[in-house]
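#lab-general

N.A. 3:47 PM
ok so I finally got the sequence cleaned up, no stray characters, all 139 residues accounted for. can someone with queue access submit it? mine expired

B.Y. 3:52 PM
send it over

N.A. 3:53 PM
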Amino acid sequence: MPNSTKPDTSAIHRVLIDSGADPKLIHPAIEEIRNLSGQNVITAIGAQITEIRSEMHAQITELRSEMQAQITELRAEMQSQITELRAEMQSQITGLRAEMQSQITGLRAEMNTLNKVIWPLISLLFIPMLALAYKILMS
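B.Y. 4:20 PM
back already:
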């Protein structure tokens, strides 16, 4: 602190003068009191900062824990939905396979029936056509 040319009229200065303190020691004593007061303020602020840090750390830890719990819950829910969707899709695929197999079986039966009808008809038509071809060739 810069030395001032004005006499110090603070309460501490007046107390020290009234108590008979050495005038040469009054100013250094006041400076020392100021320094100690500043150190006390710094210590108090440091303690408050430490307390705030501790509280923030506790809150951050709590938030992390809550977020982890929510993430775990969401993962479980998503896994459940995926499992459900897979089961539903598998059920639909199984149903489609059965339906397609039924249709294929029906088509095979129809083809067999048509084969049984078409070949005899072709044979019946072949004989007159062969006779007609024979007539044409003989004439």
